[in-house]
Amino acid sequence: MSELHKFIFDGLPVRGMIVRLTDAWTEILRRRAAGDATSGYPPPVRDLLGEMTAAAVLMQANIKFNGALVLQIFGDGPVKVAVVEVQPDLSLRATAKVVGEVAPDARLSGLVNLGNQGRCAITLDPKDKFPGQQPYQGVVPLHGDRREKLENVSEVLEHYMLQSEQLDTTLVLAANDQVAAGLLIQRLPLQGEGNLAGSMVSRENEDEIGLNEHYNRIAILARSLKRDELLTLDVDTVLRRLFWDEQVLRFTPQQGADGPRFACRCSRTRVRNMIRSLGRDEAESILAERGDIEVGCDFCGLQYRFDPVDAAQIFAEPGDQPPGTSVVQ
Ligand SMILES: [Zn+2]
């Protein structure tokens, strides 16, 4: 079962989390491969998407925010885009669009950052937006300060967290065809909630970057965790091996219906709205060419079909007004 474990280090300004996605991850892969024999992800893409999925769960669980967290990587290379969406209740979905040949040993730059133009975007989309409100988005490049290409998603995200929260963060990520897993260690803000608490606190947090000896010691221990260990060992064993000399206080794990799990949010209504936004001319030209309009969900593989009668209904209906307010008589 997929699970999320949170813990703190007693008396120290450091917190941690481990996520292990098993059924939630294999479900994403199974749906992808179900399309046809050639549609499964090449292993380097699979591992990248798995690491991103684990990271997105950790990031969503690490913030107090009522809305979806969307983690995207895009650029130039055989992977056009990889995207993960995690809801506040930890339900999640993920997909990647592969447009070219993937080398069997391709790393991050070979997948999506050939010309060093690759980007990673983190979007926080509030659940109850007021009219006109835009989602919050942060974008970081897939290279370091000296424009050197980064080869691990973990480095890219550590960079993002340092920029956006002024908090040192250590991420260890790994994925294969069975498990997507991650360990996050973060220095706690001195007071308040990081950069949300105002510039003075933010400044003090910034001054502390890299200097907290407790965080530094625990981060070194965390980084000693091997990919293989993260993928194969259970959480109790990982915590015992890494932090045997530390006072780790653990919270009740989140699993099952409270834990990370696959769920797609697509629906026939959403697809109808999308077709409506294409416009009548575009819809009619697709109908003339193919006989019906077929839209597949990239996240879950579901196919939505609209024949000419269905399509005509879409455009016969009034727009997006709530029911009952649309007909003026
Ligand atoms: Zn779907």
Task: Give the SSE layout.
Layout: E1 3-9, E2 14-21, H1 23-34, H2 43-62, E3 67-74, E4 79-86, E5 91-98, H3 108-112, E6 119-126, E7 136-141, H4 153-165, E8 169-175, E9 180-187, H5 199-207, H6 213-223, H7 227-232, H8 235-242, E10 248-250, E11 254-255, E12 261-262, H9 268-278, H10 280-290, E13 293-296, E14 303-306, H11 308-316
Parallel strand pairs: 5-12
Antiparallel strand pairs: 1-2, 1-10, 1-11, 2-9, 3-4, 3-6, 4-5, 6-7, 8-9, 13-14
Bound molecules: zinc ion.
Q: How would you concisely characterize the structure shown here?
A:
The protein has eleven helices and 14 strands. By secondary structure, the protein is an alpha+beta fold.
What's the overall average pLDDT, rounded?
Answer: 89
What is the alpha-carbon Rg in Å?
22 Å
* SSE-based structural type: alpha+beta
Report strand %: 25-35%
Taking the sheet with the most strands, its summary is: 6 strands, antiparallel
Total number of helical segments? 11
Give the helices and strands as they follow along the chain: EEHHEEEHEEHEEHHHHEEEHHEEH
Extract low-pLDDT stretches.
192-199, 321-329
Hetero groups: zinc ion
CATH hierarchy: architecture of the largest domain? 3-Layer(bab) Sandwich
What is the straight-line distance between the termini?
Answer: 55 Å
Helix content: 25-40%
Number of domains: 2
Multimeric status of the protein: single chain
CATH fold group of the largest domain = Hsp33 domain
Can you say what the CATH homologous superfamily of the largest domain is? Hsp33 domain
